[in-house]
Amino acid sequence: MHGQSNAANYGSARYTAREAVDNFDPATGKCFAAVDPLLGTDGLGGSFATRLGDILIQTGRYDRVILVPLAKGSSSLSFLNNEGAHLTTNGISKLKAAGMTPTHILFQQGETDARLTTTTEEYASLLHQLVKRFRAAGFHAPFYLSRSTKCGNAEPKNMAAVRAGQLAAVDEASLNVRLGPDTDTIGNEGRSPDGCHMNEAGTLANAALWAAFIR
Q1: Which pLDDT band holds residue 159 (cuts at 50, 70, 90)?
Q2: Rg of the chain over CA atoms, in angstroms?
Q3: Predicted TM-score (pTM) of this structure
Q4: Residue 215: its pLDDT value, please?
Q5: pLDDT tens for residues 59-89?
Q6: 2-3 and 105-108 as β-strands: parallel, antiparallel, unpaired?
Q7: Residues with Cβ within 8 Å of residue 110, at least 6 apart in sequence
Q8: Total structural domains in the chain?
Q9: For residue 3, which of 68, 83, 79, 72 has the smallest C-alpha distance?
Q10: What distance lies between CA 167 and its chain's CA centroid?
Q11: pLDDT band at 188 (very low <50, low <70, confident <90, very high)
């Protein structure tokens, strides 16, 4: 999982996976049982991914799930491609060293870009730049891109521009970028008082939204 805070450990409630869900730590290159807060990302709360792992096993889609968290709170796409590029490159390096190849890449991000007035064209271009880092490394798993912009008091026109950029970035033919869930459908009842991060109900809803896209 990659992106910003709602793909990291910023949920208000922690969770411990009950099934065979592991957490690959990009710092050490080792696997541990998946317990919030997950290793490899920031924040001290809960992650939707820990719950997602249980859902995927409980519904019979997988016998084992290994989560690889790379997200960082408040990240714009420009940051992830520049100052924060090490989050991607280190993750790739550690996975290669461990002989592991991702089967799905989940990207949940956009709230910061909606506050920075990133244009539709800029978002799509920056997203493709990030995806190409994985492709150049030989990681060709489907890259699922959420539609995520809801956070506090972001301007509706900026949110619309980023959401359009997320749609424009879908490119199944050459980069295998696929449309993921619309996490903006999680309303304030699923959010913390800041109107951005997820409470316990919202974190579970986020996991369920992602589960619908993973086969």
Answers
A1: very high
A2: 16
A3: 0.97
A4: 87
A5: 999 999 999 999 999 999 999 999 999 999 9
A6: parallel
A7: 4, 123, 146, 147, 148, 149, 162, 163, 166
A8: 1
A9: 72
A10: 16
A11: very high
Mean pLDDT of 198-214: 98
CATH of the domain at 12: 3.40.50.1110
Q: According to the 3-state scheme, what is the secondary structure of the chain?
A: CEECHHHCCCECCCCECCCCEEEEECCCCEEEECECCCCCCCCCCECHHHHHHHHHHHCCCCCCEEECCCCCCCCCHHHHHCCCHHHHHHHHHHHHHCCCCCCCEEEECCHHHHHCCCCHHHHHHHHHHHHHHHHHCCCCCCEEEEECCCCCCCCHHHHHHHHHHHHHHCECCCCCEEEEEEHHHCCHHHECCCCCCECHHHHHHHHHHHHCCCC
- Asked if the model's pLDDT at residue 154 lies above 90, the reply is no
Mean pLDDT of the chain: 97
Placement of tokens 């506090």 in the chain: 152
Domain that holds residue 52: 2-211
d(CA 204, CA 215): 19
CA distance readout (Å), 80 to 5, 36, 147:
13, 23, 17
